[in-house]
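Record DUF1640 domain-containing protein, 115 aa.
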Amino acid sequence: MSQPASVIDLYDSLLAAEDERARARIIAGAFERLEDRYPELKDLATASGVRESELRLQKEIEQIRAEMKIEIERLRTELKTDIAAGNQKVLRWVTGLMFAQLVTIIAIILGSGFL
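=>
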C-alpha cells in the first residue's frame, strides 16, 4: 500500500480503502509521517505548561529571595559583631600606647630635671 504524500492523496487513499482496518492503517501512517516530519511536536510547550513553569519559577525565586534576605541579615549581624570586636581591640591598643607615651613623657621630664 503506498503512503499518501499530501492531504488530497490521503483523502483519496481513505476513499479507496476497502474496509475500516485499511483506513485506520492509512491514518496511522499519516500520523507517523507527521511525527517524523515534525519531531518537536512531541515536545511542544502548551500555554498551560508554560504558565505552570512560570509559576513554579516565580515560587522558586521568592524562596531564594527569602533565603537571601535571611543570609544577608545573618552576615550583617556577624559583620557588626566583628567590627565591634575590632573597635575594642583598637581602643585597647590606643589606650595602652597613650599610657606608654605619657609614662615616657613623664620620664623624660623627670629625667631632665625640668620640674
